Amino acid sequence: MMEQKIQEASVKQKLATRDQEGKLIKFEVRDDPEQKNKCDETMELLLAAGYFRVRIKGLSEFDKIVGGLAWCIQACNFAVDIDVLYQENSILRQKIALTERIVLVLSQMKCPFNIEPHQIQGLDFIHIYPIVQWLVKRVFDRRAEVGDFTRAYALNQYEKQFLDKNNIVQVNEKKPLTENVEMIRMRYRPKRRYRYLETKKKKYTRDERKRRVHSTLLEFGQMHQLLLSDNSTSSSTTNENQQNDTKSTVDAMMKNMAGEKTKITTQKVNTLVSKEQNNLIRLLEEYEEKEAALLQEAATSETGQQQLLIRTLTNQLNKQKEKINNSKTQLNEAQEKKQLTFDEAKEALIKQQREQIESEIEQLEKDAQNIDPESLKRVQILMGEYESLKKQETEKKNKYKAEKVQLEQEISKLEARLKSDMNDDPENERMKQIDEQFQQINDRLQKQRLLLVH
Q: What pLDDT digit, counting tens, does each position of 318-338 carry?
């Protein structure tokens, strides 16, 4: 049945490629020149980034593009929860899944260009090219970061392993670091929190050995769950019972263990103190002897005197610095107190003013309630009339000012014309007319000035 269906499908496919007369249909396949150019540019970008598989002629363009994208994502060292795996000559389902993964990873990498899986599968190089360009740029940036970090790490390891003892600077730099590391190790070393009380030595059974191990772990703060013996464990016991048994066992062990401070006897304390006291006395004597020898050498030699002088000066400077720091702290405290008092006074003044304003507002409201409404309306009407009169007055003033400016301009023009026509004798009549006009305009100007004054 299946073979018959396959044969029918192959016959239909053959018939679809033939015309009615039975001749083969010739299809003309055209290439988009823009897509071709973008494809070449994309391949050149991947080759420049270091993905040399694009040179293999046997691979399809889809394999080259998808392989290049997967390689760029892995080279960027971007932490994602998806493994971008690439296999050549994949089936259609694998290609779709791979393109969907690549698009998801690009969105997580915050790629500024949007693309869909079908565009990668359909080899839409116009939209693929900017994404490849962005990824290649990220690859180069990542290489520069990794190169700088690797170089600095290699130099650091070389200086650690092959330290030049003749180089005093490196030795002096390393010495305080090693001392600090050792000090930190000693400070945070394991400390016993409890001490197991053992009355006498005896042979331990298997359960007692387990209990002793867990009590020792408990001394260092590790609260491990106790392993119950084979006899005590059974399938019928529940987790709740086990927890209760474990808790009771730990409590019993802690009762049998004394505190870190209480277990040291007074005799041991006295011996330890005497030993440390002798060591301290010996160290102080050695320090005083060395200091006296250094002072004697400093007194005999010139360089020593200079060093002694420098030391005294540094001590004096340090004391002065301490005094300055103390005075600064005192000054800061005084300023803070002053600021606090100022803020409190300011708040009190603001509060007082606010209360005064509120009381005045209340008084005004009370007075407004006592006013007759008819008189209030009359006052409002008078205020409106006053505002309208004031507005008319301002408008008239502006109008008169404009007329004044215009008249002054006309006067200036007439004066200029008079100056130009002073030497013309035949035009005496015209001059008289101009004088009359000037006199009229001057009279009008005087009237306007009087109006402005009133």
A: 888 888 888 888 888 888 888
CB atoms under 10 Å from CB of 206, counted, come to 9
Opening angle at CA 378, ends 372 and 384, nearest 5: 135
Same domain, 208 and 289: no
Q: Are residues 251 and 289 in the same domain?
A: no
Q: How many residues does the chain have?
A: 454
DSSP string for 93-139: HHHHHHHHHHHHHHHHTT-SS---HHHHHTT-HHHHHHHHHHHHHHH
Cβ neighbour number for residue 203 with a 10 Å cutoff: 5
Contacts of 71 (CB under 8 A, 6+ apart): 46, 51, 86
Give the span between the Cα atoms of 46 and 140, in whole angstroms: 12
**pTM of this prediction?**
0.34
Total domains in the fold of the chain = 4
> Are residue 149 and residue 214 in the same domain, yes or no?
no
Examine residue 375 and state whether it is found in any structural domain, yes or no. Answer: no
Side chain identity, residue 276: E
Q: Domain range for residue 92?
A: 33-157
